[in-house]
Write a structure and sequence with these properties.
Blueprint: E1 4-12, H1 15-31, E2 35-39, E3 53-59, H2 62-70, H3 72-84, E4 85-93
Helix pairs in contact: 1-3
Length: about 100
């Protein structure tokens, strides 16, 4: 099974309320087997516009990644995130091993 990854780039406007997004999203991440590869560490934008927070999340499959994003649990978190942060999320398929 080929893994899939969420790549999120975010500028948080309200750090205190962003914690609500994280706690609301957690059940969806747990349910769909999310594994955080990188989360908010130091980053250097060497080409293009950078964002302050960068996250890479591994899922067992593309279906898991899509189902997580579209789940009611995560969609409740999206509403919070979009009010306290600006950013992008893309889902990419990994290379088959």
């Amino acid at each position: 099974m080929t893994k899939a990854y969420w790549i999120a780039r975010v500028d948080v406007r309200d750090a205190e309320r962003y914690k609500d997004y994280i706690s609301t999203a957690k059940p969806a991440f747990e349910r769909f087997g999310a594994n955080f590869i990188a989360r908010g560490g130091a980053a250097h934008a060497v080409e293009g516009q950078g964002r302050a927070r960068n996250v890479i999340i591994e899922f067992p499959s593309m279906q898991h990644a899509l189902d997580c994003y579209n789940s009611p649990e995560y969609q409740a978190a999206v509403v919070i995130r979009q009010t306290v942060a600006d950013g992008e999320v893309i889902i990419v398929e990994g290379n088959a091993a």
